[in-house]
Amino acid sequence: MKKVDVVLGLQWGDEGKGKVVDVLTPNYQVIARFQGGPNAGHSLHFGGQSFVLHTIPSGIFRDGSINIIGNGVVIDPVILAQEIAKLEATGVDVKSKLMVAKKAHLILPTHRILDAASEASKGKTKIGSTLKGIGPTYMDKTGRNGLRVGDIISPAFEERYNRLKEKHIKMLGQYDYQYDVEAYEKEWFAGIEVLKQLRFIEGEHVVNRYIDEGKAILAEGAQGSLLDIDFGTYPFVTSSNTLCAGVCTGLGVAPSRIGNVYGIFKAYCTRVGSGPFPTELFDADGEKMREVGREYGSTTGRPRRCGWLDIVALKYSVMMNGVSELIMMKADVLNDFDTLKVAVAYKVNGTETTEFPYETNEEIVPVYKEFKGWKQNINEIRKYEDFPVEFKQYVEFIEKETGVPVKIISVGPDREETIVR
């Protein structure tokens, strides 16, 4: 029986999932997003062009592919409509290749306002939200008030919309926050009209039928494992289950139908927004990673915090996701370092541990192992054998620590700059 393969990020997001999905997609007929919302920014570079996808699965550029936005995703019709228009302008036939699960929830204009008002009221305790309305939308989903894609085709749609909007306006009364809902609302209803041109599906039935037919399916995650609502660095997390388990609830497939799990990580670590980051660097090395790696958010443009690779956190993510193959991104960013460090343990209150702790906000001191840098440009290398010995030592150490093979190595942003072992 065919199974659903999964590709997801193992750190705090921004691992380079878009590029990897694009490299993997020739082997798959169906690509499905299973969670998250337009706070995701999957960047793809090929044919001299750059694209950033926020809601649409990264298989959309492949001819004959089927792309599904699953029920676990939250959708902003404005952002989705803009994304479709941009892709269509470059000749991509989006509407024939994209389907949307009826059970996916909609982000309302007032969800965005609630997000901004809540974040503004937190002052120093801000969680670093992307202000896209995602948290409030998931809150309405679990609070059983949400508006779903399937509601769009109901005659009672506007009435349901207005009821939820009124509830939000009442909630906004508790904040001292100025807002104007009308401008975005106009665009929102225009976005709903664009959404109506797509195929709405009973996602769980369709996906399971495709599995039974033997179609190759790839489930694409957004954000990263350490931002998972249950197992991430709470409360500095996203509002959905970013782990492999999220595929089951976000697409409606049984755990026994999960196949290969591809875990993506950067050769170093980055984080956007607030929250704990044990290996974060505040020196010239961190600055160099940011500049060489162009570490600025693809959704927000915010500079990313940078630091050394954290094996404690990586092993935790590998365990939680059942990763079967590792994919290492942005190895080329470390071309010019004399010494590389990797956190192999944490000291928490003076006690050394290799387990990812409950409280990640207290004083965690990383215990580092040092490696000699390879000090050469590896961007042109296309065979693993040709890599410098120092680079191979770095990769093989990661494999030994995690117990999982590094199957793909990326040495640049382009589709071609990828080594499959």
Provide an overview of this structure.
With 421 residues, the chain is of the alpha/beta class. The protein has twelve helices and 20 strands. A ten-stranded mixed sheet has the order 9-7-5-2-10-1-11-15-19-20, with helices on both faces. Strands 14, 16, 17 and 18 form a four-stranded mixed sheet that branches. The longest helix has 16 residues, at 157-172.
List the keywords.
single chain, 421 residues, alpha/beta, four-stranded mixed β-sheet, globular
Structure, briefly:
With 421 residues, the protein is an alpha/beta fold. It contains 12 helices and 20 strands.
Q: Termini, distance in Å?
A: 26 Å
Quick check: average pLDDT?
A: 93
List the uncertain runs. none
What is the general shape?
globular
User: Main sheet: which strands, in order across?
Assistant: 9-7-5-2-10-1-11-15-19-20
The number of helical segments is: 12
Number of strands: 20
What is the makeup of the main sheet?
A: 10 strands, mixed
Could you estimate the helical fraction of the residues in percent?
A: 25-40%
Whole-angstrom Rg: 21 Å
The SS-based structural class is alpha/beta
